[in-house]
Amino acid sequence: MTASPATPRIWRIVFGITGLIVLASPIWADEEARILPVTTEVAAPPPRQEQPVVDTKGQWNKNEASAQLRKAEQAAQRDHAENSELQARLGKTEKALGEANDQASMLARDLRKAREETSRCLQQIDEHDRRLTEGAQALEAGRQAMAQLQAELQQVRSESEALRSKVGERDQRLTEGAQALETGRQAIVQLQAELQQVRSEGEGLRQEIARLQANVAATAQQLAETRALLPLRQGGTVTPDALRDIAHASALRLEMARQELIHDPTARATYEAIVAQLAQEQLRLANAIAARGVYQVRSGDTLARVAARLYGGSDRWSEIYQANRHVLDDADRLLPDVTLVVP
User: Fold this and answer.
1) What are phi and psi of 143, to 5 degrees?
2) What are the backbone angles phi and psi of residue 231, rounded to the nearest 5°?
3) Does the model's pTM come out above 0.70?
4) CA 341, CA 83: separation in Å to the nearest integer?
5) Distance of CA 218 to CAs 227, 244, 282, Å?
6) Measured between alpha carbons, how far is 312 from 306 in angstroms, rounded to an integer?
7) DSSP designation for 312
8) How far apart are CA 32 and CA 168, in angstroms?
9) How far apart are CA 223 and CA 5, in angstroms?
10) Comparing C-alpha atoms, which of 160, 186, 164, 181 is closest to residue 269?
11) CA-based Rg of the chain, rounded to a whole angstrom?
12) Coil, helix or strand at residue 218
C-alpha cells in the first residue's frame, strides 16, 4: 500500500508540536510559579507604627524620631524599588505568558490541523485497506473461477480427445467399408465384363450371370447396411444372433468363391474381398459378445491345434467350435482363410 504524499509532512508537524510542548512546559511551570505569588498591583507596605520616644521626663526626643523617620523612608524607598522590579518582572512574565499562549494557540491550531490531516489520512488508509481487501477478495474469486475454468477446460479436452478417438475409429471403419465397397464395385465390373464375354454361350449362362449380378448388388447393399450398424455393446441395434447370420452368409459366399477360384484364377480379387468381409463380421461379433478376439485359419489347422496355440491346451477345441457353429459345418474340417471367433 502506497502512503499519501502528505503523510510525512503531517508527522513532522505532529513531532514539532510535541517537541515545542515538551520544551515550553518547564518555562510555563516556572513562570506560573513566579507569577502566582504576585498580583497585578503591589500594595504599599503598611506604615510602620513608630513608638514615640519619650524621655524620662515625658518629652519627645526629636533626634531619635528623625532617625527613625529616615529609616522608615529608606525602607519605603527599598520597598518601592522592589515593587517596581516586581512590576517589571510581572510585565515581562505576562508578555512571555501571552507569547507562550499565542504560540500554544498556534501549536494547538496546527495540532488540530495535523489531527484533521491525520484523520483524513487514516480515512484514506482505511479506504485503501478496504479497496485492497476487496481487490484481494476479487483476486481470490478470480483465481477460484480460473481454477474451475481450467478444470472444465481439462474435462472438455478429455472429452474432445475421446471424441477424436471415436471419430478416428469411425473414419477407419468408413475407409474399410469404402474399400470393401470399391472391391465389390470392381467385382461387379469384372462380372459385367465376364457377362459380356459369355453372352454368346447361351441363354442359360445369361440367366446365371443375371442372378450373380443380383447377388452382388444385394451383397453390396447388405454390406453398406451392415457397416452402418454397431453391436449392442457399442450402442447399436444389431444383436449377436444377427451378426452370426451375417457371418454365416459370408461364409457361404466364401465357399462359393473358393469353388469358383478353382476354375477361374482371375476371381482372386472377389475371393479376397469376401475373406476380408468375413473377418470384419467375425470381429464385430467378437466385440459384441466380449470375446478374446479372432483367428484366421491357416492351411493345415485343426480345432485342437488352434486351441493349443491360443489356450495352451488342445482340450478346449469344443469351445471354439461352439462359438463358430455359424461358419463351421464340421468340427473336423477347417477351411483356410476362415476367420474364427476366439471365446
Assistant:
1) -65, -45
2) -65, 165
3) no
4) 138
5) 14, 18, 20
6) 9
7) S
8) 103
9) 85
10) 186
11) 64
12) helix
Residue keyed to cell 500500500: 1
Question: What per-residue string of b and e applies to 81-90 under the rule 16 or more CB within 10 Å gives b?
Answer: eeeeebeeeb
Strand partners, 33: none
What Å distances lie between residue 25 and 21, 104, 107, CA to CA?
6, 10, 13
Q: What is the mean pLDDT of residues 128-149?
A: 89
Residue with the three cell numbers 465389390: 184
Nine-digit cell string for 193: 465384363
Instruction: State pLDDT tens for residues 283-317.
Output: 999 999 989 999 999 999 999 999 999 999 999 99
Contact 217/174 with Cβ under 8 angstroms?
Answer: no
Contact criterion met (CB below 8 Å) for 276 and 339:
no
Residue 4 CA to residue 121 CA, distance in Å, equals 7
C-alpha cell at 239: 444383436
